[in-house]
Amino acid sequence: MDLKLSTLLCLTLLFSTILSPALSELCNPKDKKVLLQIKKAFNDPYALSSWNPKTDCCDWYSVTCDSTTNRVNSLTLFSGGLSGQIPPQVGDLPYLELLQFHKQPNLTGPIQPSIAKLKSLKELRLSWTNISGSVPDFLSQLKNLTFLELSFNNLSGSIPSSLSQLPNLDALHLDRNKLTGHIPKSFGEFHGSVPELYLSHNQLSGNIPTSLAKLDFNRIDFSRNKLEGDASMIFGLNKTAQIVDLSRNLLEFNLSKVEFSKSLTSLDLNHNKITGSIPVGLTQLDLQFLNVSYNRLCGQIPVGGKLQSFDSSAYIHNRCLCGAPLPSCT
Ligand SMILES: *[C@@H]1O[C@H](CO)[C@@H](O)[C@H](O)[C@H]1NC(C)=O
Ligand SMILES: *[C@@H]1O[C@H](CO)[C@@H](O)[C@H](O)[C@H]1NC(C)=O
Ligand SMILES: *[C@@H]1O[C@H](CO)[C@@H](O)[C@H](O)[C@H]1NC(C)=O
Ligand SMILES: *[C@@H]1O[C@H](CO)[C@@H](O)[C@H](O)[C@H]1NC(C)=O
Ligand SMILES: *[C@@H]1O[C@H](CO)[C@@H](O)[C@H](O)[C@H]1NC(C)=O
Ligand SMILES: *[C@@H]1O[C@H](CO)[C@@H](O)[C@H](O)[C@H]1NC(C)=O
Ligand SMILES: *[C@@H]1O[C@H](CO)[C@@H](O)[C@H](O)[C@H]1NC(C)=O
User: Fold this and answer.
1) Which of 61, 108, 153, 260 is the most buried (most CB within 10 A)?
2) Which domains does the chain have, with CATH numbers?
Protein backbone atom coordinates (compact mmCIF):
# COMPACT_ATOMS: atom_id res chain seq x y z
CA MET A 1 0.00 0.00 0.00
CA ASP A 2 1.05 3.53 -0.80
CA LEU A 3 2.53 5.26 2.26
CA LYS A 4 0.35 8.37 1.94
CA LEU A 5 -2.81 6.32 1.63
CA SER A 6 -2.03 4.19 4.67
CA THR A 7 -1.23 7.30 6.73
CA LEU A 8 -4.51 8.79 5.63
CA LEU A 9 -6.36 5.63 6.63
CA CYS A 10 -4.68 5.62 10.01
CA LEU A 11 -5.55 9.24 10.62
CA THR A 12 -9.16 8.68 9.58
CA LEU A 13 -9.41 5.76 11.99
CA LEU A 14 -7.80 7.80 14.77
CA PHE A 15 -10.12 10.77 14.29
CA SER A 16 -13.22 8.64 14.02
CA THR A 17 -12.48 7.03 17.41
CA ILE A 18 -11.57 10.33 19.06
CA LEU A 19 -14.28 12.51 17.60
CA SER A 20 -17.23 10.18 17.50
CA PRO A 21 -17.24 7.77 20.44
CA ALA A 22 -20.93 7.12 19.64
CA LEU A 23 -19.85 5.10 16.58
CA SER A 24 -18.03 2.56 18.73
CA GLU A 25 -20.39 2.63 21.69
CA LEU A 26 -22.33 -0.62 21.98
CA CYS A 27 -24.48 0.31 24.95
CA ASN A 28 -28.14 0.92 24.30
CA PRO A 29 -28.92 4.58 25.21
CA LYS A 30 -32.05 3.59 27.16
CA ASP A 31 -30.09 1.14 29.31
CA LYS A 32 -27.34 3.69 29.87
CA LYS A 33 -29.86 6.28 31.02
CA VAL A 34 -31.38 3.81 33.49
CA LEU A 35 -27.97 2.78 34.86
CA LEU A 36 -27.07 6.42 35.44
CA GLN A 37 -30.37 6.88 37.30
CA ILE A 38 -29.47 3.88 39.48
CA LYS A 39 -26.06 5.38 40.20
CA LYS A 40 -27.71 8.67 41.15
CA ALA A 41 -30.25 6.90 43.38
CA PHE A 42 -27.33 5.36 45.28
CA ASN A 43 -25.81 8.87 45.67
CA ASP A 44 -22.95 8.46 43.18
CA PRO A 45 -21.02 5.95 45.29
CA TYR A 46 -17.32 5.31 44.77
CA ALA A 47 -18.20 1.66 44.00
CA LEU A 48 -19.83 2.88 40.75
CA SER A 49 -17.14 5.36 39.73
CA SER A 50 -16.47 3.41 36.52
CA TRP A 51 -20.02 4.30 35.44
CA ASN A 52 -18.83 7.33 33.50
CA PRO A 53 -21.46 8.78 31.12
CA LYS A 54 -18.72 9.41 28.51
CA THR A 55 -17.83 5.74 28.18
CA ASP A 56 -19.59 2.65 26.86
CA CYS A 57 -21.85 1.23 29.57
CA CYS A 58 -21.14 -2.29 28.32
CA ASP A 59 -17.61 -1.75 29.66
CA TRP A 60 -18.73 -0.55 33.08
CA TYR A 61 -17.85 -2.46 36.21
CA SER A 62 -20.66 -4.85 37.31
CA VAL A 63 -22.49 -4.54 33.97
CA THR A 64 -22.54 -6.92 31.02
CA CYS A 65 -24.37 -6.67 27.72
CA ASP A 66 -25.70 -9.40 25.46
CA SER A 67 -23.21 -9.93 22.63
CA THR A 68 -25.81 -9.79 19.86
CA THR A 69 -28.39 -7.27 21.08
CA ASN A 70 -25.97 -5.20 23.21
CA ARG A 71 -28.75 -4.82 25.78
CA VAL A 72 -27.71 -4.93 29.43
CA ASN A 73 -28.26 -8.52 30.56
CA SER A 74 -26.57 -8.63 33.92
CA LEU A 75 -26.00 -6.38 36.90
CA THR A 76 -23.88 -7.87 39.69
CA LEU A 77 -23.04 -5.56 42.56
CA PHE A 78 -20.67 -7.24 45.02
CA SER A 79 -18.81 -6.41 48.17
CA GLY A 80 -20.17 -3.28 49.72
CA GLY A 81 -20.18 0.38 48.95
CA LEU A 82 -23.91 0.72 48.31
CA SER A 83 -26.37 2.06 50.83
CA GLY A 84 -30.08 2.70 50.80
CA GLN A 85 -32.78 0.77 49.01
CA ILE A 86 -32.67 -1.03 45.67
CA PRO A 87 -33.80 1.76 43.30
CA PRO A 88 -37.06 1.19 41.37
CA GLN A 89 -35.18 1.85 38.11
CA VAL A 90 -33.71 -1.70 38.17
CA GLY A 91 -37.12 -2.69 36.80
CA ASP A 92 -36.39 -0.62 33.67
CA LEU A 93 -33.63 -2.89 32.35
CA PRO A 94 -36.00 -5.17 30.39
CA TYR A 95 -33.32 -7.56 29.09
CA LEU A 96 -31.80 -8.29 32.49
CA GLU A 97 -31.22 -12.02 33.01
CA LEU A 98 -29.08 -11.82 36.16
CA LEU A 99 -29.57 -9.37 39.01
CA GLN A 100 -27.28 -9.76 41.99
CA PHE A 101 -26.61 -7.73 45.12
CA HIS A 102 -24.14 -9.56 47.37
CA LYS A 103 -22.36 -8.55 50.59
CA GLN A 104 -24.03 -5.17 50.78
CA PRO A 105 -24.63 -4.70 54.53
CA ASN A 106 -25.98 -1.18 54.05
CA LEU A 107 -28.56 -2.20 51.47
CA THR A 108 -31.94 -1.98 53.23
CA GLY A 109 -35.66 -1.78 52.47
CA PRO A 110 -37.88 -4.31 50.73
CA ILE A 111 -37.29 -6.47 47.68
CA GLN A 112 -37.97 -3.78 45.12
CA PRO A 113 -41.49 -4.30 43.62
CA SER A 114 -40.40 -3.11 40.16
CA ILE A 115 -38.34 -6.33 39.87
CA ALA A 116 -41.73 -7.82 38.87
CA LYS A 117 -41.21 -6.21 35.44
CA LEU A 118 -38.01 -8.17 34.73
CA LYS A 119 -39.63 -11.03 32.82
CA SER A 120 -36.33 -12.22 31.29
CA LEU A 121 -34.73 -12.72 34.68
CA LYS A 122 -33.10 -16.13 35.10
CA GLU A 123 -31.21 -15.50 38.31
CA LEU A 124 -32.18 -13.22 41.16
CA ARG A 125 -29.54 -13.28 43.87
CA LEU A 126 -29.90 -10.95 46.84
CA SER A 127 -27.61 -12.25 49.58
CA TRP A 128 -25.75 -10.95 52.64
CA THR A 129 -27.68 -7.68 52.67
CA ASN A 130 -30.04 -6.02 55.14
CA ILE A 131 -33.03 -6.23 52.82
CA SER A 132 -36.15 -6.72 54.94
CA GLY A 133 -39.89 -7.22 54.54
CA SER A 134 -41.47 -10.32 53.06
CA VAL A 135 -40.61 -12.64 50.19
CA PRO A 136 -42.98 -11.15 47.60
CA ASP A 137 -45.62 -13.18 45.81
CA PHE A 138 -44.76 -11.54 42.47
CA LEU A 139 -41.59 -13.60 42.19
CA SER A 140 -43.78 -16.51 41.02
CA GLN A 141 -44.53 -14.50 37.86
CA LEU A 142 -40.89 -14.47 36.78
CA LYS A 143 -41.31 -17.74 34.89
CA ASN A 144 -37.77 -17.88 33.53
CA LEU A 145 -36.17 -17.91 36.98
CA THR A 146 -33.84 -20.85 37.45
CA PHE A 147 -32.00 -19.57 40.53
CA LEU A 148 -33.70 -17.67 43.33
CA GLU A 149 -31.31 -16.84 46.14
CA LEU A 150 -32.44 -14.65 49.03
CA SER A 151 -30.02 -16.02 51.66
CA PHE A 152 -28.49 -14.09 54.59
CA ASN A 153 -30.87 -11.14 54.66
CA ASN A 154 -33.36 -9.74 57.13
CA LEU A 155 -36.51 -11.10 55.43
CA SER A 156 -39.53 -11.96 57.55
CA GLY A 157 -43.07 -13.27 57.11
CA SER A 158 -44.02 -16.57 55.57
CA ILE A 159 -42.88 -18.29 52.39
CA PRO A 160 -45.32 -17.65 49.51
CA SER A 161 -46.80 -20.95 48.35
CA SER A 162 -46.90 -19.60 44.79
CA LEU A 163 -43.14 -20.14 44.41
CA SER A 164 -43.90 -23.75 43.47
CA GLN A 165 -45.38 -22.38 40.24
CA LEU A 166 -41.97 -21.40 38.93
CA PRO A 167 -41.50 -23.98 36.18
CA ASN A 168 -37.74 -23.78 35.68
CA LEU A 169 -36.41 -23.41 39.20
CA ASP A 170 -33.21 -25.35 39.99
CA ALA A 171 -32.42 -23.66 43.28
CA LEU A 172 -34.51 -21.97 45.95
CA HIS A 173 -32.30 -20.57 48.70
CA LEU A 174 -34.23 -18.74 51.43
CA ASP A 175 -31.87 -19.72 54.24
CA ARG A 176 -30.64 -17.41 57.01
CA ASN A 177 -33.48 -14.96 57.30
CA LYS A 178 -36.26 -14.51 59.86
CA LEU A 179 -38.96 -16.38 57.99
CA THR A 180 -41.87 -17.75 60.01
CA GLY A 181 -44.93 -19.89 59.37
CA HIS A 182 -45.12 -23.32 57.75
CA ILE A 183 -43.37 -24.83 54.77
CA PRO A 184 -46.04 -24.44 52.04
CA LYS A 185 -48.00 -27.60 51.14
CA SER A 186 -47.50 -26.65 47.49
CA PHE A 187 -43.78 -27.49 47.82
CA GLY A 188 -44.75 -31.15 47.38
CA GLU A 189 -45.59 -30.37 43.80
CA PHE A 190 -43.33 -28.01 41.93
CA HIS A 191 -44.86 -27.42 38.51
CA GLY A 192 -41.65 -28.02 36.62
CA SER A 193 -38.20 -29.00 37.78
CA VAL A 194 -37.73 -29.64 41.50
CA PRO A 195 -35.26 -27.16 42.99
CA GLU A 196 -32.77 -27.78 45.73
CA LEU A 197 -34.49 -26.33 48.78
CA TYR A 198 -32.46 -24.39 51.33
CA LEU A 199 -34.69 -23.07 54.10
CA SER A 200 -32.26 -23.37 57.03
CA HIS A 201 -31.65 -20.84 59.82
CA ASN A 202 -35.14 -19.38 59.91
CA GLN A 203 -38.02 -19.69 62.38
CA LEU A 204 -40.22 -22.01 60.34
CA SER A 205 -42.62 -24.00 62.49
CA GLY A 206 -45.31 -26.65 62.37
CA ASN A 207 -45.23 -29.99 60.61
CA ILE A 208 -43.41 -30.68 57.38
CA PRO A 209 -46.32 -31.08 54.92
CA THR A 210 -47.06 -34.72 54.03
CA SER A 211 -47.24 -33.60 50.39
CA LEU A 212 -43.42 -33.61 50.41
CA ALA A 213 -43.65 -37.42 50.08
CA LYS A 214 -44.27 -36.72 46.38
CA LEU A 215 -41.28 -34.46 46.01
CA ASP A 216 -38.23 -35.83 44.24
CA PHE A 217 -35.54 -33.38 45.17
CA ASN A 218 -31.77 -33.72 45.34
CA ARG A 219 -30.89 -31.50 48.26
CA ILE A 220 -32.89 -30.33 51.22
CA ASP A 221 -31.63 -28.17 54.06
CA PHE A 222 -34.32 -27.45 56.64
CA SER A 223 -31.87 -27.23 59.55
CA ARG A 224 -32.15 -24.75 62.42
CA ASN A 225 -35.85 -24.09 62.36
CA LYS A 226 -38.67 -25.09 64.71
CA LEU A 227 -40.17 -27.86 62.62
CA GLU A 228 -42.14 -30.50 64.51
CA GLY A 229 -43.49 -33.99 64.09
CA ASP A 230 -42.81 -36.47 61.33
CA ALA A 231 -40.12 -36.13 58.67
CA SER A 232 -40.20 -39.69 57.36
CA MET A 233 -42.08 -38.59 54.20
CA ILE A 234 -38.84 -37.04 52.98
CA PHE A 235 -37.25 -40.47 52.69
CA GLY A 236 -38.13 -43.62 50.79
CA LEU A 237 -36.53 -46.28 48.62
CA ASN A 238 -37.47 -44.52 45.39
CA LYS A 239 -36.28 -41.04 46.30
CA THR A 240 -33.43 -39.29 44.54
CA ALA A 241 -32.28 -37.32 47.58
CA GLN A 242 -28.52 -36.97 47.97
CA ILE A 243 -28.15 -34.48 50.79
CA VAL A 244 -30.66 -34.06 53.61
CA ASP A 245 -30.08 -31.79 56.60
CA LEU A 246 -32.89 -31.64 59.15
CA SER A 247 -30.68 -30.90 62.16
CA ARG A 248 -31.67 -28.63 65.05
CA ASN A 249 -35.42 -28.79 64.81
CA LEU A 250 -38.11 -30.34 67.04
CA LEU A 251 -38.78 -33.34 64.82
CA GLU A 252 -40.26 -36.38 66.52
CA PHE A 253 -40.72 -39.67 64.66
CA ASN A 254 -39.65 -43.31 64.77
CA LEU A 255 -36.55 -43.88 62.65
CA SER A 256 -36.74 -47.71 62.85
CA LYS A 257 -39.17 -48.09 59.94
CA VAL A 258 -37.73 -45.42 57.65
CA GLU A 259 -36.31 -46.65 54.34
CA PHE A 260 -33.52 -44.80 52.61
CA SER A 261 -32.69 -44.62 48.90
CA LYS A 262 -29.24 -45.59 47.61
CA SER A 263 -28.76 -42.04 46.32
CA LEU A 264 -28.38 -40.61 49.83
CA THR A 265 -24.81 -39.52 50.62
CA SER A 266 -25.28 -37.11 53.51
CA LEU A 267 -27.79 -37.26 56.34
CA ASP A 268 -27.83 -34.86 59.29
CA LEU A 269 -30.54 -35.35 61.90
CA ASN A 270 -28.71 -34.04 64.99
CA HIS A 271 -30.62 -32.20 67.76
CA ASN A 272 -34.18 -33.44 67.29
CA LYS A 273 -36.45 -35.77 69.27
CA ILE A 274 -36.16 -38.79 67.00
CA THR A 275 -36.99 -42.17 68.55
CA GLY A 276 -36.59 -45.82 67.56
CA SER A 277 -33.32 -47.31 66.35
CA ILE A 278 -30.92 -46.91 63.45
CA PRO A 279 -32.32 -49.01 60.59
CA VAL A 280 -30.10 -51.76 59.11
CA GLY A 281 -30.88 -50.27 55.67
CA LEU A 282 -28.39 -47.47 56.37
CA THR A 283 -25.53 -49.99 56.05
CA GLN A 284 -26.45 -50.36 52.37
CA LEU A 285 -25.66 -46.73 51.54
CA ASP A 286 -22.45 -45.08 50.44
CA LEU A 287 -22.74 -42.39 53.10
CA GLN A 288 -20.11 -39.66 53.25
CA PHE A 289 -21.71 -37.90 56.19
CA LEU A 290 -24.01 -39.00 58.99
CA ASN A 291 -24.96 -37.32 62.23
CA VAL A 292 -27.80 -38.56 64.43
CA SER A 293 -26.44 -37.16 67.72
CA TYR A 294 -28.68 -35.51 70.33
CA ASN A 295 -31.85 -37.51 69.68
CA ARG A 296 -33.72 -40.24 71.58
CA LEU A 297 -32.44 -43.26 69.66
CA CYS A 298 -31.87 -46.67 71.23
CA GLY A 299 -30.40 -50.05 70.41
CA GLN A 300 -27.32 -51.26 68.59
CA ILE A 301 -25.74 -49.30 65.76
CA PRO A 302 -25.95 -51.77 62.84
CA VAL A 303 -22.54 -53.07 61.77
CA GLY A 304 -21.53 -52.57 58.15
CA GLY A 305 -21.33 -50.10 55.29
CA LYS A 306 -19.98 -46.75 56.38
CA LEU A 307 -21.64 -46.70 59.80
CA GLN A 308 -18.43 -47.47 61.71
CA SER A 309 -16.39 -44.95 59.70
CA PHE A 310 -17.91 -41.98 61.56
CA ASP A 311 -16.54 -41.01 64.95
CA SER A 312 -18.62 -41.33 68.10
CA SER A 313 -19.67 -37.67 67.97
CA ALA A 314 -22.01 -38.63 65.12
CA TYR A 315 -23.99 -40.84 67.56
CA ILE A 316 -23.53 -39.31 71.02
CA HIS A 317 -26.21 -38.06 73.34
CA ASN A 318 -29.01 -40.45 72.50
CA ARG A 319 -31.23 -42.41 74.89
CA CYS A 320 -29.49 -45.79 74.63
CA LEU A 321 -27.55 -46.20 71.39
CA CYS A 322 -24.66 -48.63 71.68
CA GLY A 323 -22.09 -50.52 69.65
CA ALA A 324 -19.14 -49.26 67.59
CA PRO A 325 -18.09 -46.48 67.45
CA LEU A 326 -19.92 -46.07 70.80
CA PRO A 327 -19.18 -48.44 73.70
CA SER A 328 -20.47 -51.96 73.12
CA CYS A 329 -23.99 -52.97 74.15
CA THR A 330 -23.48 -55.23 77.12
C1 LIG B 1 -21.93 0.94 55.76
O2 LIG B 1 -22.22 2.22 56.30
C3 LIG B 1 -21.33 2.60 57.35
C4 LIG B 1 -21.86 3.89 57.94
O5 LIG B 1 -22.16 4.81 56.96
C6 LIG B 1 -19.93 2.72 56.80
O7 LIG B 1 -19.02 3.07 57.82
C8 LIG B 1 -19.52 1.39 56.19
O9 LIG B 1 -18.26 1.49 55.58
C10 LIG B 1 -20.54 0.90 55.17
N11 LIG B 1 -20.18 -0.46 54.77
C12 LIG B 1 -20.06 -0.86 53.50
C13 LIG B 1 -19.57 -2.25 53.29
O14 LIG B 1 -20.37 -0.16 52.55
C1 LIG C 1 -27.03 -5.75 58.78
O2 LIG C 1 -26.69 -4.55 59.45
C3 LIG C 1 -26.02 -4.76 60.68
C4 LIG C 1 -25.77 -3.40 61.34
O5 LIG C 1 -26.82 -2.55 61.07
C6 LIG C 1 -24.71 -5.48 60.44
O7 LIG C 1 -24.08 -5.75 61.68
C8 LIG C 1 -24.97 -6.77 59.71
O9 LIG C 1 -23.75 -7.38 59.37
C10 LIG C 1 -25.77 -6.54 58.45
N11 LIG C 1 -26.12 -7.83 57.85
C12 LIG C 1 -25.57 -8.29 56.72
C13 LIG C 1 -26.00 -9.65 56.28
O14 LIG C 1 -24.76 -7.68 56.07
C1 LIG D 1 -37.69 -17.26 28.70
O2 LIG D 1 -36.77 -18.26 28.27
C3 LIG D 1 -37.09 -18.80 27.00
C4 LIG D 1 -36.13 -19.95 26.75
O5 LIG D 1 -34.80 -19.58 27.05
C6 LIG D 1 -36.99 -17.71 25.96
O7 LIG D 1 -37.33 -18.24 24.70
C8 LIG D 1 -37.96 -16.60 26.32
O9 LIG D 1 -37.80 -15.53 25.43
C10 LIG D 1 -37.69 -16.10 27.74
N11 LIG D 1 -38.70 -15.16 28.12
C12 LIG D 1 -38.43 -13.92 28.39
C13 LIG D 1 -39.59 -13.06 28.79
O14 LIG D 1 -37.29 -13.51 28.37
C1 LIG E 1 -34.31 -6.14 60.28
O2 LIG E 1 -35.74 -6.19 60.24
C3 LIG E 1 -36.35 -5.77 61.44
C4 LIG E 1 -37.83 -5.95 61.25
O5 LIG E 1 -38.10 -7.26 60.89
C6 LIG E 1 -36.00 -4.30 61.68
O7 LIG E 1 -36.55 -3.90 62.92
C8 LIG E 1 -34.50 -4.14 61.73
O9 LIG E 1 -34.17 -2.78 61.83
C10 LIG E 1 -33.89 -4.70 60.46
N11 LIG E 1 -32.44 -4.58 60.56
C12 LIG E 1 -31.72 -3.89 59.71
C13 LIG E 1 -30.26 -3.81 60.00
O14 LIG E 1 -32.21 -3.33 58.73
C1 LIG F 1 -40.67 -47.81 43.73
O2 LIG F 1 -40.58 -47.98 42.33
C3 LIG F 1 -40.95 -49.27 41.89
C4 LIG F 1 -40.64 -49.39 40.41
O5 LIG F 1 -40.67 -48.14 39.79
C6 LIG F 1 -42.42 -49.50 42.19
O7 LIG F 1 -42.80 -50.80 41.79
C8 LIG F 1 -42.64 -49.37 43.71
O9 LIG F 1 -44.00 -49.47 44.00
C10 LIG F 1 -42.12 -48.02 44.21
N11 LIG F 1 -42.16 -48.02 45.65
C12 LIG F 1 -42.63 -47.01 46.36
C13 LIG F 1 -42.56 -47.15 47.83
O14 LIG F 1 -43.07 -45.99 45.83
C1 LIG G 1 -40.32 -47.86 66.62
O2 LIG G 1 -40.75 -48.79 65.66
C3 LIG G 1 -40.29 -50.12 65.94
C4 LIG G 1 -40.62 -51.02 64.75
O5 LIG G 1 -41.97 -50.89 64.42
C6 LIG G 1 -40.91 -50.60 67.23
O7 LIG G 1 -40.44 -51.88 67.55
C8 LIG G 1 -40.51 -49.65 68.34
O9 LIG G 1 -41.16 -49.97 69.54
C10 LIG G 1 -40.84 -48.20 67.99
N11 LIG G 1 -40.22 -47.34 68.97
C12 LIG G 1 -40.82 -46.31 69.51
C13 LIG G 1 -40.06 -45.53 70.53
O14 LIG G 1 -41.96 -45.97 69.21
C1 LIG H 1 -22.53 -34.18 65.11
O2 LIG H 1 -23.28 -33.07 65.58
C3 LIG H 1 -22.90 -32.68 66.89
C4 LIG H 1 -23.87 -31.59 67.31
O5 LIG H 1 -23.86 -30.52 66.43
C6 LIG H 1 -21.46 -32.20 66.86
O7 LIG H 1 -21.06 -31.81 68.14
C8 LIG H 1 -20.57 -33.32 66.34
O9 LIG H 1 -19.26 -32.84 66.21
C10 LIG H 1 -21.06 -33.81 65.01
N11 LIG H 1 -20.27 -34.97 64.60
C12 LIG H 1 -20.03 -35.27 63.33
C13 LIG H 1 -19.19 -36.46 63.05
O14 LIG H 1 -20.47 -34.62 62.42
Assistant:
1) 153
2) 26-322 (3.80.10.10)
